Amino acid sequence: MKRYCVYIYHCHSTMSLSLYYHTLKYLKREQLFFQIYYKIAAKVTRFLSLRTDYTCYKKGNPVELKDYPKKPVSYEGDNVFCLLNLTHRFNGKWDDCSQGELWRYNLNYMDFLLQPGMSVTDGYGWIERFIDDIADNQIANDPYPISLRGINWIKFVSLHIEELSFEQMKKIDTSLYSQYKLLSKRTERHLLANHYLENGFSLLFAAIYFRDADFWQKAKHIVVSQLKEQILSDGAHFELSPMYHCVILERLLDCCNLLSVTDNSLFVELETTKMFLYGKASEMLAWLDAIVVANDTLPLLNDAANGVVFSPSVLREYANSLHIEWHKGELNVSGYRHITRSAYETIIDIAPLGVSYNLGHAHADTSNFLLWVRNRALLVDTGTSTYNNCERRNYERSTMAHNAVVVDGENSSKVWGAFRCAQRANVNILDDTSVSCSMSHNGYNNKGVTCLRQYICREDRMEVIDTVSGGHIRSAVAYFHLAPEVQVLDVSDNAIVTDCASFYFENSCAIDIVQMEVAEEYNILSSSQCIQVTFDSTLRTIIADFQ
Questions:
Q1: What is the dihedral of CA 324, 327, 332, 337, to 10 degrees?
Q2: Which among 4, 75, 327, 443 could disulfide-bond with 412, CB atoms 3.0 to 4.6 Å apart, if both were Cys?
Q3: Closest listed residue to residue 84, CA positions, set 520, 526, 528, 527
Q4: Could you say which architecture CATH assigns to the domain 336-544?
């Protein structure tokens, strides 16, 4: 028994080392350096019992922004917050993680300051409470919450400057400037991607608010360099999550708003920077128009959920108010394809997983597709309900949680933890037209297996042809996740009829319908059904008879 346990431990350790190796090898040297640097700095700080200085004071200068969208209501009064669809009474601890990590981070963003009807008394009360508690708040100094909270504070005080006393403003400015000094020294270069860009956006607000040239230089460098890297040539954000695309776009529009009302003589290259931001906003808006589907719906691909970001229509309205011009773009290097026929439309994923050095929001969803029939969802992604490192998170990132083929019950890319990815599938696009596309991927290369998928979008039907070849395959299963509202009317040996469309399968070995759950919003699961089709080497799926 002892030898057996040692063997199991050895296998587990070997597996863990392999996952870490195949994850870390994709990181930039800059990320690795700052991962180590920040860990050492944190340990030194704790060892020496060093405390953050929150007494740095600099007078702020309220900004006169053009109208911007209000945040959804999350503070319900009487110390009760509803964040991510979880209602919880504030217990005096800003770092309370009883509702999950993401919930407490959202509390620390303090978006509620900008919700409709937020009074200056309540808003300032919460800011003051935060300032008084900051020393005991374990995540108060995390760069990402500082970034989002800082913008919210600046917007709030700018709205209510006439109602706040000198003493109140001095207290806010002292804390805010101290937090920004800390952020300026601890930008998230260990993560990069959207977090690092958010740091830059927020420092841009800090530069204008405090008239601080050092903040300006750092913000301009981060924002310009990262937007050049992170916004692809077709306008997509490079993490390939439509939701995070909208998150970044909203913040970019805020910065366009900020610079549009700021005197160009305040800082060197302010006008040039403004024009650059306007151009990138136009590119992102073009991609957004290209990716949205029926009824202005945002596809829930990768880490995406409803209720987190403003709708595409709200973002367009905001952009129009800033006089930003754009034209509907074409999906290209982002790897998504949007094909529309008279009765249906589909989003097809022939994209890489995302930027190689940060796949925190990537799923093992290579070759996935979504389908709407006459503005009604038929095939959906199972969505994202949580960021907690748990069984549900693992499932939502898995291949079987998407409309894709699973070989031998394994993921096509080795997603693990809550935000990590080791070995990942590489995509080879074989055909790409306005009504068809085909691709192969090597996600099962360790088995010597190649997966080929062809999409043919005819006027009266959609065909999906899967071919699995090479190696020794125990099982190949194609998954088709029905939207919760879709009803299955009839099941036969090679066909399934729903109240939305019919599925016909050629060369199937077995067809099963399994009860599942999908998440259209955080922390909300809806019952649905999944069609699971087992096949040997080739499966031809025809979706037709659109109702």
A1: 110
A2: 443
A3: 520
A4: Distorted Sandwich (2.70)
Query: 3-class SS at 436?
Result: strand
Let me know: does 470 contact 450? Beta carbons within 8 Å: yes
Task: Give the CA angle between residues 147, 149, 152 to the nearest 5°.
Answer: 115
Contact 260, 274 (CB under 8 A): yes
Give pTM, 2 decimals.
0.94
Give the CA radius of gyration of the chain.
Answer: 25
* CB proximity list for 391: less than 8 A, separation 6 or greater: none
Per-domain residue ranges of the chain: 52-210, 231-324, 336-544
Strand ranges across the sheet with 376-379? 336-340, 344-349, 369-373, 376-379
Q: pLDDT tens, 35-45? A: 898 889 888 87
Q: Residue 339 gets which letter from DSSP? A: E
Q: What is the dihedral of CA 234, 237, 238, 244, to 10 degrees?
A: -150
Q: How confident is the model at residue 96, as a pLDDT?
A: 93
Question: Where residue 236 falls among pLDDT bands split at 50, 70, 90?
Answer: very high
> Cα-flanking dihedrals φ and ψ of residue 507, to 5°?
75, 25
Say whether 15 sits in a helix, a strand or coil. Answer: helix
Helix (H) or strand (E) holding 147: helix 143-159
pLDDT-derived band of residue 547, with 50, 70 and 90 as boundaries? Answer: confident
Contact by Cβ (8 Å): 325, 208: no
Helix boundaries (H) for 265-383: 270-291, 312-321
376-401: per-residue pLDDT in tens? Answer: 999 999 999 999 999 999 999 999 99
φ, ψ (nearest 5 deg) of residue 257 = -60, -50
Distance CA 503, CA 491 (A): 10
Q: Please report which helix (H) or strand (E) contains residue 101, including its range.
A: helix 101-109
Using DSSP, state whether 492 is helix, strand or coil.
coil
Identify the band that residue 25 occupies on the pLDDT scale cut at 50, 70 and 90. Answer: confident
Please determine, for residue 13, whether its predicted confidence score (pLDDT) is greater than 50: no
Backbone angles phi, psi at 408, to 5 degrees: 55, 30
- pLDDT tens-digit readout, 256-280: 999 999 998 999 999 999 999 999 9
Token representation of residue 458: 């005819």
Query: Can you give the pLDDT at residue 15?
Result: 54
What tokens does 547 get? 């109702």
pLDDT tens by residue, 429-473: 999 999 999 999 999 998 999 999 999 999 999 999 999 998 888
User: What's the full length of the chain, in residues?
Assistant: 547
Encoded amino acid at 407, one letter: V
Q: Residue written as tokens 């069609």?
A: 531
Locate 185 and state its tokens.
């020294």
* List of E strands, 411-460: 415-416, 420-421, 427-432, 436-441, 450-457
Q: Is the pLDDT of residue 5 over 90?
A: no
H-run or E-run covering 22: helix 2-24
- Could you tell me the two tokens for 21? 């190796």
Which residue intervals of 190-342 are DSSP H helices? 193-210, 213-230, 242-260, 270-291, 312-321
